Amino acid sequence: MPESLGEKLQQARQDRGISISEVAEQTRIAAHYLEAIEQDDYRTLPGGIFNKGFVKSFAKYVGIDEQDALQDYARISSSQIVERGENDSLSYRPEVLTDDSSGPSMLPTVIFAVLILGLMTWGIFALVNYLQNSESQKVENNIANNNVKIGENSKNANTNTGTAVDQSIPATDKISVKISAPELAISATVDGKREVRTLNSEVTEQVIEAEETLVLSYFKGLADTVQLTLNGKKIETPLPPPGYKRNAFVYEINMNNIKRILKTGKISSGEAENSNTKTPVSSNSTRNANTAANRNSATQNPAAVNTTVPQQ
Known about the structure:
2 domains; rod-shaped; 5-stranded antiparallel sheet; alpha+beta; 312 residues; 10 helices
């Protein structure tokens, strides 16, 4: 006759012809837990209330009184707890804590780490110092170079001060005047020889060259239509000064005033006044020149009239 709970459950299951797998399927208990219960070995079970629930469901399914099965389980589990406690006490060995210094020392590692840290710190400091010195040297070099350039520029400026005006003035070894106007009769005295030049719709400009002196004369009423270029530089249109009474506007360009005219870019009233005194030209001569130019234009192809007249 079975004595333990496990034997009772196993006997009841076998009497009914039920397999472990069928009980496991119906009770939702793992088969290895059911086998442990039949062996009265509860060490592999979860414990506590789960063990009681497994025993109760197993007993109910195989037809054993559930309360009797739980009482048997209580007796078996209490005895197993006592046995487990005795076994644990026999197998317990106290652990003695000692100051065992037989392990590897950390001192070499600490020393090595300190050395590495020191080298890294020194390297960073040296790099920063080098960069600072390099930047300072570059700044000093730039300042020195700038000072040298400023000195050289000052010298060049001082050297070129006296020649700046001369470089802006064209060559003055001769007198070359290009005169333009829509229509004009010009009386020119070139180095003492008088010429007549005519401008019209076909010939709108004339170039007159002289070695020493050039005196130009034309009707003052057309003076504002004249455009003048002296030695390649455009000159401001000369106009008769206020109070100029003669009909012929006369002015002179010579080697004494050509540089001043080129520098200022205009012919002052002084040149006109001086030319009035030196080379008087009557209004009748100017009108005669205009009449001759018009007569030539009517009978010939329009072109420059170049007439040399002995000086009076």
